Amino acid sequence: MSTEEDLHSVQWERLRNGDKQALFALYNSTYAHLLRFGLKLCGNDELVKDCITQLFLQLWNKHAQLKPVTNVPAYLFTALKRQLLDQLAYQSRIHDAISKITGKEEENELSYEEIIIRVQQDDEIKQRLHSAIKALTPRQIELIRLKFFEGLSYEQIAAQTSQTVKTAYNTVYDAIKTLRKKLS
Question: What was the pLDDT predicted at 162?
Fold first, then answer.
């Protein structure tokens, strides 16, 4: 375990015991990472910031019921992802309700040219992604599939592939880094 992971674990345990300073320390040490992660998911910086704040408020409100966590950042990323998905679903329902009340549907029809351009862009992205995936090792491809397409946790991936959780995490991290480099 790295010292940062140790620090997060200590902060988590102190938070569980009602230490408000531990909440602030955990918030300060993970905020930038959570913000980057959230922006990759939805791109709405105000929504992401609100969800991060809500997440930490919920952690404080339920600190007595929190369970021990082995990988605090992974727990926070998952919790933020759920928070964002819930908020996006809620906003979608509100938007749909307003559309029904006002009788106004947004015009989402694209011109023929816009459709052709989008299809071409999609094909180009698919080709670049396919090419980037070829740069990964078979093990990296397998772990990316398990993590992002089957939605398994790192613990589940480790158990299924007979690896440690840290090895699974590092393999996925390296694969994502390779993909980013190839796609940029």
Answer: 92
